[in-house]
Amino acid sequence: MMALEFSQRIARIPTYPAAGGYAQRAPKVRLASNESPWPPLPAVIEAIQGALATLNRYPDPTNSLLRERLSERYGVPASRIAIGNGSCDILLAAGEALLEPGAELVYAWPSFSVYPHLSAASGARAVTVPLDACERHDLRGMLREITAATRLVIVCNPNNPTSTAVALASVADFVAEVPRHVCVIVDEAYCEFNLLEDPDASIDLLAHHPNLVLLRTFSKVYGLCGLRVGFALCGSEDLPRAVDQVRQPFFCNALAQTAAVEALAHQDAVTDRVTRTIAERISVDERLRALGIEPAESQANFCWFGLGGHDPEQAATREADVMRGLAERGVLVRGGGALGRPGALRVTYGTTEENAIFLDALAEAL
Description:
CATH topology of the largest domain: Aspartate Aminotransferase, domain 2
Low-confidence stretches: none
CATH architecture of the largest domain: 3-Layer(aba) Sandwich
Strand content: 15-25%
CATH class of the largest domain: Alpha Beta
Number of helices: 12
Radius of gyration: 20 Å
Distance between the termini: 51 Å
Number of strands: 12
Helix content: 25-40%
């Protein structure tokens, strides 16, 4: 029996390292996917329930109401806002629209695990730049890697998986030096948790840089991971138009659009959730230090820390042993090996109760 013949890019594209624990009975504490520990707001759930009766109709293919509400919230024209089935959808579509064999893509590493998919799927060359000693983006190093072949540069700020952020002034200087024909995507999935500056301060850069894209999501601070809706605020209409050309129609479902529109009307609740997350961030990081662990300086809703040891094989073994010990105690976290750094852990900040269970389990597992 002959096997199916697939395109060469199938062999190039890595499998996304999704966290385990979804298929079996839920663990006691799930801190592996940077989800919100709090469910959607009651008003959002009510809005979703109200939309259920219309599911015999296709969703608005232009996402017009959601883009209008985002325009009102951020002061960016609706024509310069792209919507996606999660921010990953916009990222992958941007790769499809911008990249091809002979082109180059520049990003830091370790960073978000979807970025390698863009070059692999398109046949473009990926140029990765190591993070600095503080686990932050080396923006000067990234600038040095930009060539005439570069089409896309991605800056994840705050960075996933390392939780760190660079100051907006540094990002502004970086964008100003990138050639205008190169698209710069600043992935701001966790920007609401960043205390270095106002999360909306970066929007002012769009007026000066038509090649700039700010990528955001409703998955994290709004607690809508399960519905998958992301958006991009763009310096021009070019990228929204291009990503829509390469995607299937109706890429953002009706319930996701309804939920996102309602969620935007409750910014006080967003502020409250950020405040609670940051309080947990401070508490967890202090207790990690008491265990002899020094986490990276987090500006996100998760922490990142090494487990000791410099030998890669020993670090990987240590990581596996600790993760196994946590899983046996009902705690699910992410191992650094799947995210580009063996011997490290990425742990979402949960509720006070969840964090206490995690920290007690970690002390025992160590």
